[in-house]
Write the structure tokens for this entry.
Amino acid sequence: MNKAPSAIGIVVIGRNEGERLRVCLRSVVGAGDTVVYVDSGSTDDSVALARNVGAVVVPLDMNVPFTAARARNAGFHALLSREPAVQFVQFVDGDCEVLPDWPQAGQAFLEQHVAYAVVSGRLRERHPERSVYNRLCDAEWNTPVGEAKACGGIALMRAAAFSAVDGFREDLIAGEEPELCLRLRAAGWKIWRLDHDMALHDAAMTHWRQWWRRSVRGGFGFAQGAWLHGRGKERHWVAETRRAVLWGIALPVLIVAAMFWWGAPALLLWLVYPLQVLRLYVRQKDAARAFFLVLGKFAEGWGVLKFVFKHLMRQRQTLIEYK
């Protein structure tokens, strides 16, 4: 008797996630016929844990520079080699727990809406109360419901559409999901965000250095995305890069130059930053978010400079990790 083709396959990526990976794998085993776990050089018991729950384990060759995009592609190819007829693939990071009814809800949407390649739901931070940085992540995950330009790394994708555009671009250290969605939309596909809880994420950000490194990575991703697709009609991430350069590089340089020219009175120019915080607070009614959005421009600006330097020196940027 021939085995029926799988509807959903699961691709999990991770490294040294410990108990978070255990929770993640337990949440997806049974949600799809095949669960693939891609391990990127873990030194804990992640590989043994994944094998014990029945996942297919793919150890990533760490002699090649690691990116999450590369890991997800490796997992997708391993999934297809076992389930060539799989229709949908749920990508999930090892620090996330997929909620029980999400895969079926996402599958139902894609089956009913054949023009859509990707569907995602509400990603929530598991412990937003533990730090302001976790709370900022939770707000970041709360994207608008409906037609979308992009998704995050946790999403259900149509396998045929993913294959047709050759998956994720593996040299991106950040922003690989919006870049993939840009190419999918250029190929005629659509992206949707359901008003449905999808997964719990554990950022585990409790120190400002973690937040800073994550913001630097974001700036690097903005600059790399703008360099790749900024000349297109959508001007992909050009505005985000411009804001990082303006607030994080250009204005500080100009103010310091003015201080040398005019002396102490030029110190008043720094008030532009608290005024920007106030403007964002009036709009969003969230003081912490307004403050860190402005402060984050310095980190993003540094990330833009890192990209420019690496690009000019023809060097490949390794992953900027915050955990």
Remarks:
- Residues 8-206 form a domain with the Spore Coat Polysaccharide Biosynthesis Protein SpsA; Chain A fold (CATH 3.90.550.10).
